[in-house]
Each structure stands twice: as structure tokens, then as C-alpha cells.
Design brief:
With 446 residues, the protein is of the alpha/beta class. It contains 19 helices and 10 strands. It has a 5-stranded parallel β-sheet, sandwiched between helices. The chain has a 3-stranded mixed β-sheet with strand order 1-2-3.
Length: 446
């Protein structure tokens, strides 16, 4: 690709790491930029799983990064290893792609393979059963029923099974979805008279993976349909994998015949990770994101976060954001701030200048940009964040705040405060960015 296109891609990676740290992974470095053609930047990834994951999870942030860095209205297209890039005018032909996913199918995260699953005392047996099922679907442990509290790794193992089956047999038909989606498809099939299509969708498969099967509770007609689906697959020696927050006999209002069938294979529980396992999980998750996490930081977080793996991942995201906002490498003091541990109080309150310095550093913009009339998102958002923080943490009036940013009136400031407040409620990642900026501003006081 040309040098300008390469510069754009490098800038996109920097933007993604700064603005979307929880999305970024170490394997982003392996993405091959093919160049910009007819208003589209083509990016090739090394597997169809990575391609499908980015199409579902990365389209918006990648496009935002491209438009911010290039300053042009461009789009992003992800290609798998065998997808061809044929451009005629503005049309793209993509032969070799796989069939589209179901609208409600769950996206498979390429990070969730067996190699990245940290084995410990609380999940060793479940992991071994999952590996056995993935290596020989339909022949051992059928069905495999995994249960445990939220955030302990059930979904990771379900997706690892799917990835291993596809790796060993690319032509295998896998249906992986949440139980709510199964019920919704069934209800819609009844309404539209498409039961034949519904049954083909779920019975003509090699592997059926259903997350949160306890959602079937108290749904008599859905239980009846799943009972027949289960029997069809089992008799054909097709693999069934189920997850739940409770073991079969403890799921309320679940028919006894389903409880019995769920117990035909292996029922296994995942328990919370112990301290040593939590440390290993933190190091593994940080490595996936390309972060260098010192041992003392991992030890400290593992001692503070005990409930589940999702909370450990949340702690890494907070740590990553605080490090980015502060412009400092990850260390114990950054970790303590990220976890919200109390810091020594200092006198005085933040000034608008302190807020501007923190925001412009983080978003890589200039004060002159914020004071200009430019309305690009890359400028408008930092401007609104400054106004929001100034309103929340200083005693300046709306008119005074507007005056700092190009003489804007009080209604513009009110709109900015409302917009940022709503975005903060809707996006946990954006809320973490604001928390980190607030911490940085507080640290500059005095």
C-alpha cells in the first residue's frame, strides 16, 4: 500500500488504542491494510472468525478512527484470508465469504479459544470436558451442560468449543445463540407459519450451542419444541452444549423430561477462581490487549477483585484508560486510582485551564481547535467534554464556560452538558474515560 495509506492505518491504531482500549487486541498488529479504493479502506485479517468478529464489533469504531485520522468520509471493509477485493467503480465484489450469520446469533470472539482459558482448581474438570467435546463432537459427553454464576468463564468455553470444531472441520454446521434467541425464533416461526424453516435451522446442524438455557423456564411450548430438537440431534449423534446459571434440577419450572435429558451426558460446574488463578487471568487478559502488567499490579487487583472474571476485565479496562489519560505507564499508583481507592485530599478546586489541559492531552487536540467553529466529531466531543467537566467541577456560569470556548452562548453549554451526561449513562467505556479525566484533574489541584 502507499505511504499515505500506511500513515492513515498507523494513525487509526493509535486512535483506537486511545479511544477504544477495551476493543483493541494484540492481534490488531497482524491486520494487513490493503489500501484505499473508491472511498473504502480494505483490511485483511487472518481468519474468517476474526473477520466476522470485526464486522460485528469493530465496524463503527474502525470507521470513526478512519474518518478522524483522514479527515475524509471514508468507510472500512474487513476481508478474510480468501476474500478477494474486486472494485468496479464504487461496487465491491467479495467472493469466497461465508454465509451470513443469523440475525440473533452470538458473535464468536477469537480471543475465547482454549489457549487463552486460564485453568485453575475451580474449572479444571469443566475445561477438560469441553476440550474432549470439541475434539470429538457427538461421541463423548453429550450433552455437555456447564453451570455456574455469571462471569466465571462459561461463555469462554462455549466459544472455545465452536472455534476448535471449526478449526478441525471448517465445513461443520454450528448453531450458537442465546436461549432467548431460540425462543424468539420459535415464536416468530409460529406466527409466520415457518416451522419447517425453523426446524431446519436448529436440527440440521453438527453442533448446537445454547447459552443461558435456564431462559426456557416456564415456557411450555418452547420447552416442547426444544425437547424434540434435543431428541433429533441426540439420536443423530450431533453434539449439544448448554450453559446455565444453575444445574438442571435447580432450574425452576423446567419439565422433568428435559431435566432428565440434560443429565444424560456430563453436568459440570465452574466455580470462582482462587487468588493465583485471578492473577494468571489478569496477566493473560492484559497480554491480549498488548499491555505490560507488572506483577505487583496484578497481585493488587487480584486481591481487590474477587467475584468474577468480568470484574477482572473491567478492572483492566479502567487501568488502561487511567494509564492513557495520565500518559503514564501502568504501575501500582495508577492501579489504585483506577480501582477508586482513596487518595490524599488536596486543597482548592480544579480550574477550567486544568480541565482543558487534561482533555486536550487525552484527545490530542489543541485549545484553538476547541475555540474554533469546527464541528467534526473529533473536535466537537472533546469540546463538549470540557464544557461538561467545567460545569460539574467549577463554579463558573454557563455564560462564562461558553466564553472560554469561542464565545458560545449558554444554550450550547447546556446542550453539551446534556449530551455528555446521556452518553456517560449509555456507555460504560465513555464513563470510565470521564472518571479517568476527573481523577487527573483532581490530581492537578493545589
Amino acid at each position: 500500500m502507499s505511504d499515505p495509506d500506511r500513515a492513515i492505518w498507523d494513525g487509526m491504531l493509535r486512535h483506537l488504542r486511545a479511544q477504544h482500549p477495551s476493543l483493541c487486541r494484540q492481534w490488531f498488529e497482524e491486520i494487513e491494510p490493503l489500501g484505499i479504493e473508491s472511498g473504502t479502506l480494505f483490511l485483511r485479517v487472518h481468519s474468517n472468525v476474526h473477520r466476522d468478529y470485526l464486522r460485528r464489533q469493530g465496524a463503527e469504531p474502525f470507521t470513526e478512527a478512519l474518518q478522524t485520522v483522514s479527515g475524509a468520509l471514508l468507510s472500512v471493509r474487513f476481508l478474510g484470508p480468501d476474500d478477494e477485493m474486486i472494485v468496479t467503480g464504487s461496487q465491491l465484489s467479495r467472493p469466497g465469504t461465508t454465509a451470513p450469520l443469523l440475525p440473533d446469533s452470538l458473535v464468536i470472539n477469537p480471543d475465547y479459544d482454549f489457549s487463552s482459558f486460564v485453568v485453575g482448581p475451580g474449572n479444571r474438570y469443566t475445561h477438560a470436558a469441553a476440550v474432549a467435546v470439541a475434539n470429538s463432537p457427538g461421541t463423548s459427553y453429550n450433552p455437555l451442560f456447564i453451570h455456574g454464576r455469571v462471569g466465571l468463564g462459561k461463555t469462554h468455553l462455549l466459544q472455545a468449543i465452536c472455534l476448535r470444531v471449526k478449526e478441525q472441520n471448517p465445513g461443520a454446521v454450528i448453531q450458537y445463540l442465546a436461549c432467548e434467541a431460540f425462543v424468539a425464533h420459535y415464536t416468530e416461526a409460529i406466527r409466520t407459519g415457518q416451522m419447517s424453516e425453523f426446524r431446519h435451522m436448529f436440527r440440521d446442524v453438527d453442533v448446537l450451542v445454547i447459552d443461558d438455557i435456564h431462559f426456557l423456564a416456564a415456557r411450555e411450548r418452547s420447552q416442547e419444541e426444544f425437547f424434540h430438537t434435543f431428541n433429533t440431534l441426540y439420536q443423530a449423534h450431533k453434539q449439544i452444549v448448554l450453559s446455565s446459571d444453575a444445574k438442571p434440577q435447580d432450574i425452576p419450572d423446567l419439565e422433568e423430561r428435559l431435566v432428565s435429558r440434560f443429565q444424560w451426558g456430563v453436568v459440570t460446574q465452574i466455580e470462582p477462581p482462587d487468588y493465583e488463578t485471578r492473577v494468571a487471568i489478569l496477566k493473560s487478559k492484559a497480554s491480549q490487549r498488548g499491555l505490560d502488567m507488572p506483577d505487583d499490579v496484578a497481585n493488587h487487583i487480584a486481591a481487590r477483585v474477587e467475584n468474577n472474571i468480568r470484574e477482572l476485565e473491567g478492572a483492566i479496562t479502567k487501568l488502561q484508560l487511567h494509564s492513557a489519560v495520565e500518559g503514564r505507564p501502568i504501575d501500582l499508583s495508577v492501579a489504585r486510582a483506577a480501582l477508586g481507592e482513596p487518595v490524599a485530599a488536596v486543597s482548592g478546586g480544579p480550574t477550567i485551564q486544568m480541565i482543558i489541559e487534561a482533555v486536550t492531552d487525552f484527545y490530542s487536540v489543541r485549545l484553538t481547535d476547541l475555540q474554533s467553529k469546527r464541528r467534526q466529531r473529533s473536535i466537537a466531543l472533546p469540546r463538549q467534554v470540557c464544557m461538561y467537566l467545567a460545569r460539574q467541577h467549577t463554579r463558573h456560569s454557563l455564560e462564562e464556560i461558553g466564553g472560554y470556548f469561542g464565545g458560545r452562548d449558554h444554550t450550547t453549554v447546556m446542550h453539551a452538558v446534556r449530551t455528555v451526561g446521556e452518553k456517560r449513562q449509555e456507555s460504560s467505556e465513555f464513563d470510565l474515560v470521564l472518571q479517568s479525566l476527573e481523577t487527573k484533574v483532581q490530581g492537578r489541584r493545589g
